[in-house]
Amino acid sequence: MILPVVTLSPNDTFDYQLLFDHAGVGLLEIDFDGCIRRINANGAAFFGRSAEVITGQNVTVLTHPEDIPRTIDALQQVVRGDTSLAVLEKRYVRADGEIVWSRSRVSLLPTRSGPATSVIAVIADITDLKRAQQDLEALNLSLQATLEGGLLGLGIALEARDLETSGHTLRVMQYSLQLGEALGLDAVMLTELKHGASLHDLGKLTIPDAVLLKPGRLDAAEWALMQTHAHNGYEIASRIPTLPRLALDVIRHHHERWDGTGYPDRLAGTDIPLLARIFAVCDVYDALTSERPYKRAWSHQAAVDELRAQRGRQFDAEVVDAFLALFPVVSSLTG
């Protein structure tokens, strides 16, 4: 149904003051210097003060200190004509000290004749919404910390079974994050890289001790079995509902080689996911510089030389170059 448009003739009267006083949102008339000329009952209730107390005060007196610059900027934008409507979410401080949130809409208040001398601010109370958002953010951070702690704990537990040098998981995670930052990864990708690093060898849980802990070289059958750990780790980790796809890529593909001779999928070049390419360099560096039952630890320089020799063969050359640019930092971590 289309409602007719109602227009008022010059002889009609309408009590705009009544509309102002009884509007279902807070309404404030504010002069160009920020002084409050009028405020309705809903607005006064929002601030926890009487209209008489509020009238004549500067709006910045009621505003949370951290939001004063944004408040002044919004007012000036409307006054200058940069915008016809400024919308901002901001905090106010009530008379009892409680911090409340509003979504404020500020625009020029027309006059019957002459230029405008004030603005009208419409304020909607969004305090409950903001508090709910903050509670959800806190819960999300708590869940994220729980997830990361669980993943890291599992990764460290894997070290004990594999006879990895103590601290391997933490080191490769730290190297990967530094390298990822150097390569310009955003915060989301860095988190996914960290999760993948935590569980990169999860699949070794499926490898028999006779193979996993063998002190000598593996024969062809044993090596083929060992190579299944990347695929198996991916399959296990895929059952973790909150683990992102890029983290799974690290687990599955960190043994792929740039030249296509790696495993499990014999991917080559940029077909290998970027996070897996980054992690592969860090994992091999730490393996080379760590002592194992079957080998002595390489020096930092020898490991760096090996990474350089494998540019464009085992590793992405760009990733290796970024790692080598960081080697003074890496050296201090190992020392």
From TrEMBL:
SUPFAM superfamilies: HD-domain/PDEase-like (SSF109604), PYP-like sensor domain (PAS domain) (SSF55785)
Domain PAS: 12-82
Gene3D superfamilies xref list: Hypothetical protein af1432, PAS domain
Pfam families: HD_5 (PF13487), PAS_4 (PF08448)
Coiled-coil stretches noted in the UniProt entry, renumbered to this chain: none
Residues covered by the HD-GYP domain: 143-335
InterPro entries per the UniProt record, alphabetical: Cyclic_di-GMP/3'3'-cGAMP_PDE (IPR052020), HD/PDEase_dom (IPR003607), HD_GYP_dom (IPR037522), PAC (IPR001610), PAS (IPR000014), PAS-assoc_C (IPR000700), PAS-like_dom_sf (IPR035965), PAS_4 (IPR013656)
Entries under PROSITE patterns matching the protein: HD_GYP, PAC, PAS
PANTHER family: CYCLIC DI-GMP PHOSPHODIESTERASE TM_0186-RELATED, TWO-COMPONENT RESPONSE REGULATOR-RELATED
The name this protein goes by in its record: PAS domain S-box-containing protein
